[in-house]
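Q: what sequence does this backbone want?
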């Protein structure tokens, strides 16, 4: 999809480019240059975007919806590595070389992804080195988060992991509003959905939290949760 070069242009490509942090700082003409090489792909909930081993040669940017990045162990267990929200990107290694994916990507809900061919965006990077720096910064952040995830999975027990994830998800109202299913949340912190449900019920019995429906957790004793998380 191409966009005409006038400032009234408001198509999805332009919106996608303008909302992505790595493209912050581009002027109008530069934004349009990126928009002109952008295409869209739509995915239904549960639809696979790419699989472990697929050769990636594109940069994928989440415009609407959410995507989970995950791996499957040899015994068939799923481990979610990260959840991508609008503005996040994946397939960034295609900017440097064509390489097989080492993970899977699946839409958690109806999702629109902006897609840019790696070889096309390289020209943009050469002219705007600031974008390369932002991509490097984001990759560094992901490595740090991956290290933290590995540490939690290896060094912390189940109760500590549940307490930690609840604390990290507390919103401005002091509660946790789950934006993903309990099954995916359990996968992210390395346990079964049944184990997660048991621990949440246990925390509720202890007076630390109150479960409200399927997607909300009221935090009643934050200090108690912090003790459980070994803060």
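A:
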């Amino acid at each position: 999809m191409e966009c005409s070069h006038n400032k009234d242009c408001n198509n999805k490509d332009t919106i996608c480019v303008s909302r992505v942090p790595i493209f912050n700082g581009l002027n109008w003409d530069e934004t349009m240059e990126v928009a002109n090489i952008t295409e869209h792909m739509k995915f239904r909930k549960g639809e696979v975007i790419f699989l472990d081993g697929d050769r990636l040669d594109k940069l994928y940017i989440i415009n609407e919806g959410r995507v989970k990045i995950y791996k499957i162990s040899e015994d068939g267990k799923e481990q979610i590595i990260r959840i991508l929200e609008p503005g996040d990107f994946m397939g960034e290694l295609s900017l440097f070389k064509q390489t097989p994916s080492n993970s899977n990507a699946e839409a958690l809900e109806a999702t629109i992804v902006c897609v840019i061919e790696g070889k096309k965006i390289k020209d943009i990077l050469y002219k705007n080195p600031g974008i390369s720096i932002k991509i490097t910064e984001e990759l560094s952040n992901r490595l740090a988060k991956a290290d933290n995830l590995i540490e939690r999975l290896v060094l912390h027990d189940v109760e500590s992991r549940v307490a930690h994830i609840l604390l990290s998800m507390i919103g401005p109202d002091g509660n946790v509003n789950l934006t993903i299913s309990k099954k995916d949340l359990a996968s992210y912190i390395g346990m079964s959905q049944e184990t997660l449900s048991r621990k949440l019920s246990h925390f509720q019995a202890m007076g630390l939290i109150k479960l409200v429906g399927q997607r909300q957790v009221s935090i009643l004793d934050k200090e108690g949760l912090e003790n459980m998380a070994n803060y």
